[in-house]
Every structure is written in structure tokens, then in C-alpha cells.
TrEMBL record:
Keyword Signal: yes
Record has Transport as a keyword: no
Full protein name: PEP-CTERM sorting domain-containing protein
NCBIfam families to which the protein is assigned, alphabetical: PEP_CTERM, PEP_EDSA_1
Residue ranges of every copy of the Ice-binding protein C-terminal domain listed in the record: 277-300
Residues spanning the signal sequence: 1-30
Top-rank taxon, per record: Bacteria
Keywords attached to this entry: Signal
Length: 305
């Protein structure tokens, strides 16, 4: 075959490979997702016989939601109320959406139409932890999702949290112990698909008793309910606990008569980060092949000059 014709065909093939590579780089799409939900039911506190708890002051509960996503306004909402009343802070959202509505705990990770942005939402139903049945529901959910590629190169992620807190003071009339009980439905999830992405889903549940001097005399943060799940640059591609449930309880040591404060913090958090879109390995092979062919043509051309 004529050397000039061969050179032209090889150059054309190199250009096609290179264009195909750039086309693949432009169309590749990656998504980093983080999710956490934490839904308690029947949170109740009891004291040992004869210890006689008396609540003092104005007990409080508070739901607080936070969301931020680079390039969009952040959002923070809180709803502190007296113990016994319902607390339902507005859902915080930052990003382009679509976003689930208030008190919606739908997991969007598997949906191609899932939101781009971050959200945090929490609520507690009316109820007193010392009364029969306790607090019927304490819910929080956090979710964050960022998409790169397909014209979104350089987009970055966000973080968000949803917290539900119950705190109050009480007097223990005589020596005794304090026991708490609740059930929980929970899930934590993180997934990444390409280099430069990070995702983290976290749940936390901490029950604390402090004495009048502020010293912590009892703390419960069971490992199974205080969990971090992470994925970075596709390793692992998915970290998913699945939907779990259980019933939990714990009892303090013997407490002296006196004044105490009790707090329950239940929280969900989700964080995603993403650098500029990075070509997938197959794309890099296409680009490398195209550029390599062009270099070969240049060498052949120089040899025949």
C-alpha cells in the first residue's frame, strides 16, 4: 500500500480514537451518594422501685436540621419545645432537587431521578418518656447526592445532619438506678463510582446522665447504633447496612439521691464530596490509544522525510 495512503488512514484512525475518547469523557457520569436514617419508637425511662423521680424545671426537646451544598444557599432549622409536645423542624435542603417532602424517609439512591443536593429532616411525636408508652416516635434522616460528568465536571458535594434531642432535669428522691428502653429502625449507606469521590453515612444515639456538678455519671453509646459507613473513589463501591431494627436498653449504676440532667441525642449525618470529573479507565484507554496512534504516525512521517 502507498505509504502516504497508509499514513492518512492511520492518522484518521488515531483522530477517531481520540475523538471517541473525548466523547466518552464528556458523557461519563458518576454519582456519590450518602444516606442515613435513624427512627426510634417507644423511648421510655424508668427508675428502680423507691427511687421516685421528680422532673424539675421546663424539660426541652429540640429537632434541628442542617444542609449545605456547594454553590447553593445552606439551610438550618430548629424547633425547641417543652417536653411532652411534638417537635418537627422544617426539612433543610440545599441543591437542585428533586427533594422528598417534609417527614419523608424515602431512600432515593437507586433512582436515576434521585436528587442532587443534600437534605436533613427530623421530628419527634408528642409524649413524655416517664409516661406509659413514652415518646412514640423520634425520627431523623440525612441524605446527600452529587453527580459528576455529563457536563457537571467540577461540581462538588455537601454535608447535612438531622438531630433530635431530648433533655430534662430531675430529682432522685433516694438512691436508685435509671433504665431507658427504645426500639430503632436504622440504615446507613455510602457509594462512590470514580476517583476523587467520597461518601459517608453516619448514625449516632447517645444517652447521658449528668449530676448537679455537670459530671457525667452514665453514658450509653452502643456500637451498633453509633456507626460510620464510608466509600472513597469506588472502594468499596457500595457500603450498605440494609434496613436494620432492634430493641435496646441499658441501666445506670446506683445513683445517689440528688439533682440530675438526662439527655438523649439521636442523629443522622451524610456527607459527599467530588472533585472534577475524572475519565473512567475505559476512557483513558481510548485516549491513550488515540494519542499513541498519532505519535506513531508522526514517527513514521519523520522517518520518511
Amino acid at each position: 500500500m502507498n505509504a502516504k495512503i497508509l499514513k492518512k488512514k492511520t492518522l484518521a484512525a488515531a483522530i477517531c480514537l481520540t475523538v471517541a475518547g473525548f466523547g466518552a469523557a464528556g458523557s461519563a457520569q458518576a454519582t456519590a451518594i450518602a444516606f442515613a436514617e435513624n427512627r426510634l419508637t417507644n423511648f421510655a425511662i424508668t427508675s428502680s422501685p423507691g427511687s421516685n423521680i421528680s422532673v424539675t424545671g421546663t424539660p426541652q426537646r429540640n429537632t434541628s436540621n442542617f444542609a449545605t451544598f456547594t454553590g447553593f444557599p445552606g439551610a438550618v432549622f430548629q424547633d425547641p419545645v417543652p417536653l411532652g409536645n411534638a417537635s418537627d423542624a422544617l426539612e433543610a435542603f440545599s441543591g437542585t432537587g428533586p427533594v422528598p417532602g417534609q417527614n419523608n424517609y424515602v431512600f432515593l439512591a437507586g433512582s436515576s431521578g434521585g436528587m442532587v443536593g443534600s437534605r436533613g429532616d427530623s421530628d419527634t411525636a408528642a409524649g413524655n418518656p416517664f409516661a406509659p408508652g413514652g415518646v412514640p416516635q423520634v425520627n431523623n434522616v440525612a441524605e446527600a447526592r452529587v453527580t459528576t460528568g455529563a457536563g457537571k465536571a467540577g461540581s462538588s458535594g455537601g454535608m447535612n445532619t438531622a438531630n433530635a434531642a431530648i433533655a430534662f432535669s430531675f430529682v432522685l428522691a433516694g438512691p436508685g438506678t435509671i433504665t431507658f428502653n427504645f426500639s430503632d429502625v436504622y440504615r446507613y449507606y455510602a457509594s462512590t463510582t470514580t476517583n476523587g469521590e467520597g461518601a459517608q453515612g453516619t448514625i449516632a444515639n447517645i444517652f447521658t446522665i449528668n449530676d448537679a456538678a455537670g459530671n457525667t455519671v452514665f453514658n450509653d453509646s452502643q456500637a451498633v447504633l453509633n456507626v460510620n459507613c464510608a466509600s472513597n473513589s469506588g472502594v468499596p463501591s457500595v457500603c450498605d447496612s440494609g434496613l436494620l431494627s432492634g430493641t435496646f436498653s441499658d441501666t445506670s449504676g446506683l445513683l445517689s439521691a440528688g439533682n440530675y440532667t438526662v439527655s438523649l441525642l439521636t442523629s443522622s449525618a451524610a456527607t459527599v464530596t467530588s472533585l472534577a470529573a475524572v475519565p473512567e479507565p475505559a476512557t483513558l484507554l481510548l485516549l491513550g490509544g488515540g494519542l499513541g496512534a498519532m505519535a506513531f504516525v508522526r514517527r513514521r512521517s519523520a522517518a520518511h522525510c
